[in-house]
Amino acid sequence: MKKYIVIVAGGKGLRMGNDIPKQFLELNGIPILMHTIKQFFTYDNSISIILVLPSIQIELWKSLCYKFSFDINHQIISGGDERFYSVKNGLSAINDDNSIVAIHDGVRPLVSIETIDRCFSSSIILGNAIPAIPIVDSLRLIDANCNEVLDRNKVRLIQTPQTFRTRLIKEAYNQNWHSGYTDDATVFESLGNKINLVEGNIENIKVTSPFDLKVAELFLLK
Length: 222
Known about the structure:
There is one protein chain. By secondary structure, the chain is an alpha/beta fold. The protein has helices at 32-43, 58-67, 83-92, 113-126, 166-172, 184-189, 210-220, and strands at 3-8, 26-27, 30-31, 48-53, 75-78, 100-105, 128-134, 139-142, 147-150, 156-158, 162-165, 197-199. The strands form three sheets. Strands 1, 4, 5, 6, 7, 10, 11 and 12 form an eight-stranded mixed beta sheet that branches.
């Protein structure tokens, strides 16, 4: 079954305190986004890579590809004002509905090959696969008047790539945008579809702050 990856990279770098969008910041000598693309190409060099960027960042990305001699083949699609619309634009570039598509955050460069494989393999069998990891800290639920402990054994941190049979996730993205759609799984689930969790990897952090960038650098030294 044909595999696709839609990589969504729409960051502005505000939390980084930097004028350069976070996906273009260097991590061990090359932009974060190049690390991300390389992971999926390493997993399967026949995978079709669709990169969704804000239209104003496309020329910058092309110049970075030239600067760093980055030659992994990929298709570039313009994003929308919300992540929902960026994903929808990326999915619209796939004409083969009898396929599997993963949707991944461009600033998660440390997703493991094992996690990617679990997501694709499970999606072929179950229709979707969402990577998740256990919580190790204590949790409390708060409201205006009180707070109470949550059972961390019943909670998971959700990651990407969130992976689906293409026809099913495209149907989900035919809906109108809703503020409650926090990720692709919530869009998919809103049609009554069951979500299947698979094991993620702890290194698969979302790089959104200078601290995250330092952590990612340390992980790459392993």
